[in-house]
Structure to design on (472 residues):
């Protein structure tokens, strides 16, 4: 530990009290490795302020002593953005004690909540007042609003409600000079030039510490219907989405699942069964919702799928008979990664290309990767309607234990090249963090990198906010 870090920890402890400073290595240890377990960092302390003023005090101390800070929420991020560097040169700033929902209003349909509030807590609180925060994802029990905002997270409802960027109405943050930006009044119109709120969304903690957010809410669901359909190709799956969208505004979830992924789930995940009797090369999970009690949502979806069947868009379909069956369908989708892990080594790529180009991309990119690396299995599943799939490449069954380390980089470079050639993004919803920094630097247009660096330099000239992440 250098003198600067020791002084920062000591002064923070005296200013904020012992609750705000954790230096016990055992307590620190679970928080210095990323969720996937691929990046291992070190830090002499976790600082856990309880208010925006305390965050500001810490940031000012960090600037004074030239010590970098790594903001951290639930540490569920997929790009190791919240993992400190391995040399122990940075301090973790955890938002765990900033977990108050300051207000929630049915009139304005807004919640103002602190950065450390867990997503599931917001869901429950909103539900109690007849509202819903329409973004959810697998980590909802531990990820925080600050982390979700900082990674501009997506999830399974983006099709209808967009990513965090669409749902955040205002941001409160401590900037790298210790000043406070208060954008929580959530103005519908505000044309005073550059939007600091928008800069902070998706900034992965590199431009400041988000202390609270104002979030848009929608009415709770009155009813939902979930169906599983078999289709012959990703192109047919997209045809189905377009068919449904032309006839209803109620489609909220639309997930693509290849037969191969379904087989793995059925093999490795207990209590799962195929929804359809016959085999189909591809499957689609459709969820329709309504907040209107007058609408027969199940009847509507059943009718539309019947019409799609008649027109040859789908090969078969089944509607979940009840909530438990609907959850069972979602389980098939949500456990694909887990099933892949049980099967062997898998390289995950969270990528996007223009929606219309996605069906051909999945088929062609899979074939190219499998041809270039014989024995590997490549496929895509996920949010087809957002042009975002998880393009996963599985090792051959006889692969060496170090396949991931030995071959992973080559495979990823090929996938990223294919994505870039298709006009896509090598990070659709997980961010850049440390995981994708080198590939981002290799593939992003120079102008984009230049602007990123210029913004970072302007707001954080001392480089104390999460250095080594996002900005190459
Ligand atoms: C099982 C699982 C499923 C997931 N599914 C999805 C999915 O469907 N879609 C999707 O988009 N993502 C998904 N994710 C990843 C998702 O991005 C994270 O769960 C979430 O957005 C990060 O929240 P967190 O509080 O854990 O942030 P952390 O992991 O702690 O941090 C993430 C980044 O945000 C920064 N940060 C955190 N808090 C702040 C703050 N207050 N101010 C400034 N910077 C901050 C960190 O420095 C880091 O760069 C999934 C993750 C898991 C584990």
């Amino acid at each position: 530990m250098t003198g600067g870090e020791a002084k920062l920890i000591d002064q923070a402890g005296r200013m904020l009290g012992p609750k705000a400073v954790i230096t016990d290595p055992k307590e620190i240890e679970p928080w210095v490795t990323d969720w996937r377990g691929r990046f291992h960092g070190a830090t002499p302390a976790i600082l856990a302020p309880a208010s925006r003023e305390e965050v500001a005090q810490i940031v000012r101390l960090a600037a004074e002593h030239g010590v970098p800070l790594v903001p951290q929420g639930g540490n569920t991020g997929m790009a190791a953005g919240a993992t400190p560097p391995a040399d122990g040169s940075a301090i973790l700033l955890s938002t765990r004690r900033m977990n108050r929902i300051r207000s929630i209003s049915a009139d304005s349909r807004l919640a103002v909540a602190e950065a450390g509030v867990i997503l599931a807590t917001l869901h429950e609180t909103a539900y109690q007042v007849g509202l819903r925060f329409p973004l959810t994802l697998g980590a909802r029990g531990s990820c925080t609003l600050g982390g979700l905002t900082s990674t501009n997270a997506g999830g399974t409802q983006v099709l209808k409600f967009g990513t965090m960027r669409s749902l955040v109405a205002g941001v409160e943050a401590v900037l790298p000079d210790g000043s406070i930006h208060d954008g929580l009044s959530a103005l519908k119109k505000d044309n005073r030039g550059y939007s600091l709120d928008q800069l902070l969304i998706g900034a992965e903690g590199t431009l400041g510490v988000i202390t609270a957010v104002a979030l848009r809410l929608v009415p709770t669901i009155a009813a939902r219907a979930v169906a599983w359909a078999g289709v012959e190709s990703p192109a047919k799956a997209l045809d189905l989405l377009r068919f449904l969208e032309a006839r209803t505004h109620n489609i909220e979830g639309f997930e693509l699942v290849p037969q191969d992924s379904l087989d793995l789930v059925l093999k490795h995940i207990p209590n799962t069964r195929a929804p359809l009797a016959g085999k189909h090369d591809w499957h689609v999970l459709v969820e329709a919702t309504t907040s209107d009690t007058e609408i027969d949502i199940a009847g509507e979806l059943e009718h539309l799928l019947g019409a799609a069947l008649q027109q040859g868009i789908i090969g078969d379909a089944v509607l979940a008979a009840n909530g438990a069956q609907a959850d069972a369908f979602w389980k098939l989708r949500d456990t694909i990664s887990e099933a892949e892990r049980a099967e062997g080594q898998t390289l995950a790529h969270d990528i996007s290309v223009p929606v219309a180009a996605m069906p051909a991309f999945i088929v062609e990119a899979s074939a190219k990767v499998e041809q270039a690396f014989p024995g590997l299995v490549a496929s895509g599943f996920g949010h087809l309607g957002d042009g975002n799939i998880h393009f996963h490449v599985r090792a051959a069954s006889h692969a060496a234990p170090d396949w991931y380390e030995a071959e992973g980089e080559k495979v990823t470079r090929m996938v990223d090249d294919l994505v870039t050639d298709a006009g896509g993004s090598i990070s659709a919803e997980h961010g850049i963090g440390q995981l994708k920094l080198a590939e981002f630097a290799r593939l992003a247009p120079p102008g984009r990198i230049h602007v990123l660096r210029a913004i970072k330099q302007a707001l954080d000239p001392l480089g104390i906010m999460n250095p080594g992440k996002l900005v190459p």
Q: What stands out?
A: The first helix runs from residue 3 to 16.
